[in-house]
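Structure tokens please, single chain.
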Amino acid sequence: MLVRLSEAERLSEGVLFLRTVKIYSGNSNPALAKAICNYIGISLGRCDVTQFPDGESFVKIDENVRGSDVFVIQSTCPPANHYLMELFIMIDALKRASAARITAVIPFYGYARQDRKDQPRVPITAKLVANLLVAAGANRVLTMDLHAQQIQGFFDIPVDHLYANPVLLDYIKTLDTENLVVVSPDVGGIKKAYNIAAVLDKPLAIVSKRRKSAHEVEATTLIGDVKDKDVLLVDDLTETAGTLTSAAELLKREGARKVFACVSHALLNDIGIQRLRNSEITELITTDSVPNQPVEGINLKVISVASLLGEAIVRIHKNLSVTSLFNN
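Here you go.
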């Protein structure tokens, strides 16, 4: 459960709050930006984010931001390069308009999987994106469920790294899963799965996988017991759904009953949608960190993180602690 400010705390200095904070959105996830503004109780800032005929992005801030505490909400979902460029240009426009502080609110931080040199002559693109955000003029970053937590250290500015677990758990607890086992579909996701298993007081299992290519994954080994149990697969993101569907197939062979999957970021492409339609997964639970529309043949449950991000924005603006937002 989120720990929210009391109504008295929220209303104290309320006139000052409404006058000095401004929230803007690029084109990646305007619905989430509006939901965050509704939670806080302010209007979304007025700006034009358009394209020239040649594809170049153009940004114009349509109101005064001098001396304001500004938050720019932009996920780097596909097309990631285009939305990143929008974000850089918006930050630059706000900086040149004399905003007092600019916080980049990035619910989904793209390029996070390129966080190290795992083969010769490849970039560390997650670090490059961090450098570009700082160079553009960002003073602070607010993000959620980074693929690799060490990316926080790529920045020389403050980073508030939130987790979607508190809002996801509110829904997971409503599932009729008395004999539930929480499963990490790969070794890298053990910590996230462990946290959820600890809160639910359920056992933890692990699937070992072998990646054949960028689009194909094979689940090879199960560590743990899932026979006659309902299973909750937990991961941070899915795109082609190879890891989830391969793990679900292995779990079914090992005697699991229902298989649920829970990811913070669902960037489903055509391959992922087709795999999920043909998979053993009963329901996919995710957040609105990136836009997700209903898909025929897939039981998709989207949980909003507007309250989580909105509360973080309020606390950052008022220079209050965000520690309570990590509580499950």
